[in-house]
Amino acid sequence: MQVSLYLNDNLAKRVSRAAKERGVSVSGYISESVEARLGSEYSPEFIATLGSLKDVDIKRPEQPKLEGGAKREKL
After folding, report:
1. How far is CA 46 from CA 25, 41, 58, 59, in A?
2. Shortest CA distance to 29 belongs to which of 19, 41, 20, 21?
3. Do 15 and 58 meet the contact criterion of CB atoms below 8 Å apart?
4. pLDDT (average), residues 51-74
5. Would you call 69 exposed, middle or buried from its count of C-beta atoms within 10 A (0-12, 13-18, 19+)?
6. Which of 1, 31, 43, 46 is most buried per CB count within 10 Å?
7. What pLDDT does 39 receive?
8. Per-residue pLDDT band at 12 (split at 50, 70, 90)
9. What is the mean pLDDT of the chain?
10. Cα separation of 34 and 6, whole Å?
11. What's residue 25's pLDDT?
C-alpha cells in the first residue's frame, strides 16, 4: 500500500536524521516505527475466523527490512 505522509519541517528533519542514524530509508524508518507501535501480530478478528485452530499459537513471520525505499518519479 502506498501512503502519503505530511510532516512539519521539524519532525521531517528528526525522522530523516533518525533514519540516517539507523542506516535505513525514511520510508523504512517510518514503517518500522509504525510496526513497533502497532505490533506485528494478527488481529483478534482474523484469529477468530480460524475457529478450528484456536489451540495453535499463530504469529506473523518476521517481515523483510525495507531497503533503499521505493523509487520515486520526479514530476
Report:
1. 31, 10, 11, 12
2. 19
3. no
4. 70
5. middle
6. 31
7. 77
8. very high
9. 81
10. 15
11. 92
The pTM (predicted TM-score) of the whole model is 0.53
Whether residue 52 has pLDDT greater than 70: no
| 44-51: average pLDDT | 72
Q: DSSP for the chain?
A: --------HHHHHHHHHHHHHHTS-HHHHHHHHHHHHH-SSPPHHHHHHHGGGTTS---PPPPPPP-S-------
Report how far residue 66's alpha carbon sits from residue 26's, in angstroms, rounded to the nearest whole number.
10
The grid coordinates of residue 72 equal: 520515486
41 and 59 in contact (C-beta within 8 Å)?
yes
- Residues 62 and 41: their CA atoms lie apart, in Å, by 10
